[in-house]
Protein: Alpha-1,4 glucan phosphorylase
Organism: Rhizobium setariae
Amino acid sequence: MKNLSEPSEISYPPLRSNDPVTLAADIIERLTYRIGKDAKVAKPHDWLTATILVVRDRIIDRWMESTRKTYETGGKRVYYLSLEFLIGRLTRDALSNLGLMEEIREALKTLGVDIDVVAALEPDAALGNGGLGRLAACFMESMATTDIPAYGYGIRYVHGLFRQQIADGWQVELPETWLAHGNPWEFERRESAYEIGFGGTVESIISPDGDARFVWKPAERVIAGAYDTPIVGWRGKRVNTLRLWTAQPIDPILLDAFNAGDHIGALRESNKAESLARVLYPADATPAGQELRLRQEFFFSSASLQDILRRHRQQYNTFDNLADKVAIQLNDTHPAVAVAELMRLLCDVHGFEFNAAWEITRNTISYTNHTLLPEALETWPVPLFERLLPRHMQIIYGINAKILLEARKEKNFTDQQIRAISLIDESGNRRVRMGNLAFMGSHSINGVSALHTELMKETVFADLHKLYPDRINNKTNGITPRRWLNQCNPGLTSLLRETIGDKFLDETEALQSLNDYAENAEFQKKFAAVKRENKIRLAQLIQSRMGLKLDPSAMFDIHVKRIHEYKRQLLNIIEAVSLYDQIRSHPELDWVPRVKIFAGKAAPSYHNAKLIIKLANDVARTINSDPAVRGLLKVVFVPNYNVSLAEMLVPAADLSEQISTAGMEASGTGNMKFALNGALTIGTLDGANVEMRDWVGAENIQIFGMNAEEVAQARLDGHNPRAIIEGSRELAQALHAIGSGVFSPDDPNRFSSLVDGLYQHDWFMVAGDFDAYAAAQRAIDQTWTDEKSWFAKAIRNTARMGWFSSDRTIRQYAKEIWKAG
């Protein structure tokens, strides 16, 4: 008789059939037995869920195979820690990458269901805000595509950032309810649960070997619970895991308090725990907001590290080889506290000596910097940090002492240099510098464009670069062509396959062969037809949502980004006002019909950004209702920018606005998406625009304005915006119109602070670059009137953007930083 305690050989089921007949039968089976609906009464959302479950089953086969392969081969795992993952809708992504789109379409068609209708019902996952989160999503897909074993770690936000509505031109923030009806893509992992502590005390004890050991005794504890989402690579080669953490209280209800009538107090601990995973980027203008933000960052970092160490020890039973088998990538400073937490876990929990733990930590962790803005390199008040994470504060002081002594003795650093690299900013109220912590605790610090990387060495990390001159390196960002060409622009993808074959689907740089068709009249005609269809589709969406009719023959000039002064939506709006004045003043000229489309969210506490949204809407209302414009100019602000809206905007753009103040945008990825889809770029020499110019050719991109060096020099020389404004007739008139209430007759002083800011300091060089920007726009008009020249440039943009694939970026990370794959 077999001993039931003995392990037996496990036989796995065969891969499921993907023919439409089998798929249709499986969809009916899931609809009936998993959702409990008869096909005769099923609603579109039921069909969507049933379809996802059928596709998910096919993914699971590959997911488990990928996990077994990594375990059996002992391959190095990459762990990507990010506070954001802007993954968007997953159904089309999974179907496309599995090669199942047409089979599922046919299966649903036999059941009387349209895949396009049901797929549009899937909510966007509210797990991010902008470029940082979308980059993380592209990287996760590319790691699976390039066969890199990887986990992404983040927070399973119930409400994400917010759902943006526009009321009387103002941004209104509402909760995003994407999880209201569950998420069929995810799996709860009850076994992967970890205690996370806050506050309390630290005690010193003597271990059996006679050494002092430290024990952190938190005053508060919560449980981090895991939810896993499979991330499918191209052609289903590998499926990786996005693991998101949700917070649960140790005791969900204080029953004694509840029975005593204190119903609110009884749930206090539950509400406090659950607040950790409710909202992305809680406003940090108040002490309570700052504390919640720091709690979130430690919560997900600690849970992720505990999970990583548990998995590693389970396989290897030692941490001596951690850096050989594990690569941890910090996506910006949000998870920087992971440096101190990994040290705590290694020293206090697993018994490593401080210096040995430091070597393991530094060799395991690497850090991606995304900003040159000092205020975006997070710092935390020392009293808050010490109260919330007392043991980590001790460790940070220990790291600081080690590095500062090294800098003084080995590099002869001056007092000024010591102050610059210190983990504690002593210049005012003492604060912990998370950017410096991430730098010190990493063996690699990478920028995300060539310009950004060089500026990083000269500005925010100048002295740390002198201390560690070999650590900073560049990894220019990229985008996944599956999402940002194949899926969002099927018309162009079909045309490319018909023209140059299928090689570009696997090797994006094979798009280069399209160069041969840039001047081909027949191909230009087909390319233009695809663009027009995409513009018609976007125009229909805007008309249905906003009641505004757009002419698809007009130039679609699109500026979609997080609303921030350095991204200079204000410059674009002022130019729109100037153009409005010129069209009315000179009706005899041949003006190019143009639609300026804006979208993006402003941080809830960012007053000027929200005022810029209001200005855009006030200007739009005035221009769009003025018959003197004769439809030659329209302005649109589309609410609630997200991945799904971007998938409509990107293929429809004729002109892509990438006009940030030079030296302030780290890279940008929207610029790459638009250019890949055949839009011309108007932009400054900022971020990845520099490399894009080099790849697409200076004649195929419209560059204007000051470069980063000139911006820095202008600030040093005492930039005088008033003189510039008074010397520019068009700018002065536009600012007068805005500042005097032409667009805000109900409140003439509404925008006076924006205008006064330009006259007084103009830090973001809006006035400084206005004339160059306006001239560049008129040059764009000239190119537009020459249709053959325009489409030749547009085609060359598509042909030459292959290098900006996130597959290339990930291969560089894997080879040069992670030593994986």
User: Anything to note?
Assistant: The mean pLDDT is 95. The first strand starts at residue 77 and ends at 81.
